[in-house]
Amino acid sequence: MPNIVLIGLRGHENICLDAIARRDDAQLVAVWESDPAALDRARQRPGVTEATLLTPNLDEILARRDVQVAILAEDNGSRAGHLIECFNRGWHVFAEKPLAITSRDLDQVRAAHAAAGTRLSMLLTMRYEPIYRSLRAALAEGLIGAPLQLSAQKSYKLGQRPAWQRDPASYGATIPFIGIHPVDLLRYVTGCDYQRVSALARSAGLPGSETMDESCALLLETTEGLPTAIRLDFLRPAGAPTHGDDRIRVAGERGVLEVLGGRLSLLTPDAPPQELPITATAPNMFDEYLDELAGVGTHELTAADCLRATELVLAAQQAAVEGRWVDCAP
């Protein structure tokens, strides 16, 4: 039975906690968070028991010798250092994204992971949504022939962002933070990779964001030369029916597949537009990860995928800062 620690309460750790609460072969032994109020509320979270240590002292977590798995859901700026600390202790790690906010930090994470040889995964949650798995299956079936153009959107309501997201030292930037999802998802559903990227990022200083970039755009070229456009923003109106508006479109030789408004549609030259059924299923990704550690099945998100996704969005952020195309070939 793996002993699991949770470092931070600032991400999608609920996916992991829900899995732990359902299982009898894993236990959450400790939680660290520097925010006292969040730490106090953690006692009510799934998977947290009376035996779970809740502490604001990270050294108390890192000193333990009974840990096999760490979940990282802290601020983005702290993640690379925590990853290295975990790898140095021989822990498996399931981390929030991105893995690092600078290329130098990512290089150090990569080296520490290679030396440790433990299992790394990351909360690329969109890979585990049935609608995108159904899109992937439709593309693999050849419903639109070979893809010729790719595009995606991730739009959120701004609201009042937490303090750590309004500080570049702890946040990084919007492109790595939310851009990592569509950048990775297009790789996942089509099998593509990218060879160069350009990008724009802008902060309008809207109330609640301060220095955060609220609006970004990426233009990427795949290794096969396909143009790929990705829009990112925190400009979704407060009155919109959902917090987010995610879209993905793949145009091919014989039609278009598109995810829009929670529906998967197919447009072809010889038939009226049709909505495709969402037939794919997806496990809880942390369940799948723990199963692999237990020798049962395979967690399909590889460490190489996690490192590559982070590498790509850091290249895109560099392109936005420097105002030029940046090579990102594999």
What are the defining features of this structure?
Dihydrodipicolinate Reductase, domain 2; 10 helices; Rossmann fold; six-stranded parallel β-sheet; 330 residues; 2 domains; 15 strands
Topology, pairings included?
Elements: E1 3-7, H1 13-22, E2 27-32, H2 36-41, E3 53-55, H3 58-62, E4 69-72, H4 76-88, E5 92-95, H5 103-116, E6 120-122, H6 130-140, E7 147-157, H7 168-171, H8 174-190, E8 194-202, E9 215-222, E10 227-236, E11 244-252, E12 255-260, E13 263-268, E14 271-276, H9 285-293, H10 303-322, E15 326-327
Parallel strand pairs: 1-2, 1-4, 2-3, 4-5, 5-6, 7-10
Antiparallel strand pairs: 7-11, 8-9, 8-15, 9-10, 11-12, 12-13, 13-14
Helix pairs in contact: 4-5, 6-8, 8-10
Question: What does this 3D model show about the protein?
Answer:
This protein has 330 residues and is an alpha/beta fold. It folds into 2 domains: 3-125 and 285-299, NAD(P)-binding Rossmann-like Domain (Rossmann fold); 126-281 and 311-327, Dihydrodipicolinate Reductase, domain 2, CATH 3.30.360.10. The chain has helices at residues 13-22, 36-41, 58-62, 76-88, 103-116, 130-140, 168-171, 174-190, 285-293, 303-322; strands spanning 3-7, 27-32, 53-55, 69-72, 92-95, 120-122, 147-157, 194-202, 215-222, 227-236, 244-252, 255-260, 263-268, 271-276, 326-327. 38% of the residues are buried.
